[in-house]
Amino acid sequence: MDTLVLLTLTGLGLGALYFLIASGLALIFGLMDVLNFAHGAFLTVSVYTAWRTAETVGGIPGLLLAAVVGTLTGLLLAAVVELVLIRRLYGRVKEQILVTVGLSLAVPALVQTVWGADARPFPVPDALSGTVGVLGARVPVNRFLLIAVALLVLAGIHLFLSRTRYGLIVRAGVEDRAMVTALGIDVTRAFTLVFALGGALAGLAGVLGGLYFGSLSPHQGTSLLVFAFVVVIIGGLVSITSVALSALTVGLVQQYANYYAGGYGDLAVVVLLAAVVLSRPAAGTGSPLTRLRRALTASRTRSAGGTA
């Protein structure tokens, strides 16, 4: 029982981390139709600036300041990328992919040149380095912090999209940009805000990722980005809540498979992704079960016609 509780809460913490990364991806792609492969690069730069801040200050104040610095780093980096590069490429998908993939390769290489390729320990305050007892299991305290932050981010995104003027402008601009522009509303400024918000979420996720793993490396953002894309694909872009549920599912499956299936957590996530993609009906085709029924019905019809 205690093992199951530990795996479940650890999986929820990992899922919360995946959600923090995937939420920024889902915002940028879902609202702006930009496939941002540089999202992991934002995370990498942010976690290194946060690491330097946490090491300098130390303790809980150092971690709080590191979270602010990391979030602002991701926000500013994303805003600069949108203003300088992405703004000229709206509606040009191939160019967007080439630019963001180039950034995803160049930025970690630059970070590796400055700070080296070796992983570095992330300073975790004593208050968050211990464990707490839950139903007989000793669960790391920082897992609960990740879950709490993910819930706050989920609520904040819901409020931004449904209750703020910019959220409404962005959603309207995606549907009909020309009409919104004709009303005298600057859609590009709203798009910059959304892209910067996605970068801020990547920066916050980088800081909490350093807290979760206890270390950081130049390619940490790239590896986490892979799972974030899996989460977005499984959850779809219907709502941010579906992305959150997908992230929790991926985190739990990975943790359970790592323990019960001999360390094949990553493979289990790939199998889950394949199962969801293959079972998801294409537009106008229905589910696989519906298609199978149609095929069987057609086969029986042909057989009856041949007998007659």
UniProtKB/TrEMBL annotation:
Topology class, membrane: Multi-pass membrane protein
The entry's keywords: Amino-acid transport, Cell membrane, Membrane, Transmembrane, Transmembrane helix, Transport
TM spans (from-to): 6-27, 34-51, 63-85, 97-115, 144-161, 190-213, 225-252, 264-283
Biological processes, Gene Ontology terms: amino acid transport
Keyword Transmembrane helix tagged: yes
Location(s), subcellular: Cell membrane
CDD domains the record matches: TM_PBP1_LivH_like
Top-level taxon of origin: Bacteria
Family that this chain belongs to: Belongs to the binding-protein-dependent transport system permease family. LivHM subfamily.
Name of the protein this chain belongs to: Branched-chain amino acid ABC transporter permease
Organism this protein belongs to: Actinospica acidiphila
Phylogenetic lineage: Bacteria, Bacillati, Actinomycetota, Actinomycetes, Catenulisporales
